[in-house]
Design a protein that fits this description.
Length: about 140
C-alpha cells in the first residue's frame, strides 16, 4: 500500500510539472524515497538527475516522514504546495496548508482537512468543498 501511495505522489508531481517518467526512472525515484526516508535524510533526493525526479522524491519523503517542511526544498511553488497538501491530508492537520503560498491552494487544502476532520461547516465555509465534491464522484 505504501508503494502505491508513493507512486501516486510521484505521478501527481510528474503531471503537475509536465515531466515524463519511464518505469526505470520511477523505480529510481521510489528507491531514492525509501533510502532518504529510512535514513531520515531528504537531501539524498538531490542526487537524482532530473528536476522532476528530485521534486517527486522530496514529495514522497515528505509524505513518508509526514514532514511538510521537506516540501520547501521543491523549487516549483505549485509542486511544493501540492506536496504540503498531501502531507496535510495525511496528517489531517491544517499546519501544512497554512505554509502554502497560493491562496486558492491554501483554501482548498484547508477544506480537504476540515472535511477529513468531520467539520463540514468549516469545509463548506471555505467555498471550495463544493468544487472538491464536483471533482470526485461519490463524495
Amino acid at each position: 500500500m505504501r508503494s502505491v501511495n508513493l507512486l501516486l505522489t510521484i505521478l501527481a508531481v510528474a503531471m503537475a510539472c509536465g515531466c515524463e517518467f519511464s518505469d526505470s526512472n520511477s523505480e529510481n525515484v521510489i528507491a531514492a524515497i525509501e533510502d532518504a526516508a529510512s535514513k531520515r535524510d531528504p537531501g539524498l533526493c538531490a542526487k537524482l538527475k532530473l528536476e522532476g525526479e528530485v521534486s517527486a522524491c522530496y514529495s514522497g519523503v515528505a509524505l513518508k516522514m509526514k514532514d511538510s517542511t521537506i516540501c520547501g526544498r521543491i523549487k516549483d511553488k505549485d509542486e511544493a504546495d501540492m506536496c504540503r497538501s498531501a502531507v496535510a491530508v495525511a496528517l489531517k492537520e491544517f499546519g501544512p496548508c497554512l505554509q502554502m503560498e497560493d491562496g486558492q491552494m491554501k483554501a482548498l487544502c484547508s477544506a480537504q482537512v476540515a472535511k477529513l476532520k468531520g467539520d463540514d461547516a468549516a469545509a463548506a465555509a471555505s467555498g471550495y468543498w463544493t468544487k472538491i465534491k464536483s471533482w470526485i464522484p461519490g463524495l
